């Protein structure tokens, strides 16, 4: 664990329990993830334009969901967090967006291959079964295979600092921080995906023109059992959302509909702070 990670941030977010309960009600935990994309068209009137796509919620960072089919080594129960995750492909546009709109404004392909990012984002979850909408606003970071390289890049340091600041040690796990591994958590997320999903990281490059047959290493509908398949793992990424504002809108009963807004008021560098709650009309 990086020394930049603090072990005494704020307690669990007050919205966490309800959010996770609602996500468990969904047949498939799909949500809409929004990022900002640098404008490339003369028709655009702003420097950035919104980009939206559906993603799958993969649990909270450091709290890998149980999966009896996952043979990857698991991290010990040391850290908890209120940071939702999803998986993606480094070749997808959203990864470049999160780098290009970050403080470092990395906008070249070679600069977005590792860990880093930190651009603004929004995530919206509609739980039809409960008549509930959750909206999160904050920043998102990319965890890549370089996360435990001996020579830490600036992107790795950013992720371990910014994400780590909002991770907290479970009571009774103090002193065990060194047993927890960022790389093991990354592999665990890969293992939690089905063989068919793992194979998607060996697809032809997303969004490129179909011109003839792809090479033998990049084919559709592959099934990957190897947790360390070099091609799939080179493209695999985990995205960690660090929410600074969370809204829950309860529309289950029109007569009592309410919106609750939770705002994190604290120090981004050490994770200390508190969630302020406001009750709003929907």
List the main descriptive attributes of the protein structure presented here.
282 residues; alpha+beta; two-stranded antiparallel ribbon; globular; single chain; 8-stranded antiparallel β-sheet
Q: What features would you describe in this structure?
A:
The protein has 6 helices and 10 strands, in the order αββββαββαβαααβββ. It starts with 15 loop residues before the first helix and ends with a strand. The strands form 2 sheets. Strands 1, 2, 4, 5, 6, 8, 9 and 10 form an 8-stranded antiparallel sheet that branches. A two-stranded antiparallel ribbon has the order 3-7. The chain has 282 residues and is an alpha+beta fold.
Give the structure's gist in a few sentences.
With 282 residues, the protein is α+β, with helices and mostly antiparallel strands. It is built from six helices and ten strands. Helix content is 17%, strand content 30%.
Tell me the overall shape: globular
Write the element-wise H/E pattern from the N-terminal end onward: HEEEEHEEHEHHHEEE
Q: Give the low-confidence spans.
A: none
What about the largest sheet? 8 strands, antiparallel
Radius of gyration: 19 Å
Residue share in helices? 10-25%
Number of helices: 6
Count of extended strands: 10
Class from helix and strand fractions: alpha+beta
Strand content range:
25-35%
Note the gap between the termini.
42 Å
């Amino acid at each position: 664990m990086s020394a930049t990670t603090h072990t005494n941030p704020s307690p669990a977010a007050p919205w966490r329990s309800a959010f996770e309960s609602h996500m468990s009600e969904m047949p498939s935990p799909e949500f809409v993830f929004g990022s900002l994309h640098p404008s490339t068209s003369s028709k655009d009137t702003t420097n950035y334009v919104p980009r939206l796509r559906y993603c799958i919620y993969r649990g909270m960072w450091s709290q890998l969901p149980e999966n009896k089919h996952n043979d990857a080594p698991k991290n010990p129960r040391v850290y908890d967090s209120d940071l939702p995750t999803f998986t993606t492909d480094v070749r997808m546009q959203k990864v470049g967006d999160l780098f290009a709109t970050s403080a470092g404004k990395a906008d070249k392909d070679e600069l977005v291959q590792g860990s880093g990012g930190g651009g603004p984002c929004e995530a919206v979850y509609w739980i039809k079964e409960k008549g509930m909408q959750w909206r999160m606003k904050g920043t998102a970071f990319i965890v890549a295979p370089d996360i435990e390289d001996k020579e830490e890049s600036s992107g790795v340091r950013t992720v371990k600092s910014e994400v780590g600041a909002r991770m907290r040690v479970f009571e009774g796990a103090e002193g065990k921080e060194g047993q927890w591994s960022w790389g093991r958590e990354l592999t665990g997320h890969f293992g939690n995906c089905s063989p068919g999903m793992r194979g998607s990281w060996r697809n032809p490059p997303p969004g490129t023109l179909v011109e003839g047959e792809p090479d033998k290493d990049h084919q559709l509908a592959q099934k990957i059992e190897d947790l360390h398949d070099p091609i799939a793992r080179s493209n695999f990424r985990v995205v960690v959302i660090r929410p600074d504002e969370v809204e829950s809108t309860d529309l289950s009963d029109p007569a009592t509909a309410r919106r609750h807004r939770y705002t994190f008021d604290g120090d981004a560098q050490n994770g200390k702070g508190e969630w302020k709650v406001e009750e709003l009309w929907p």
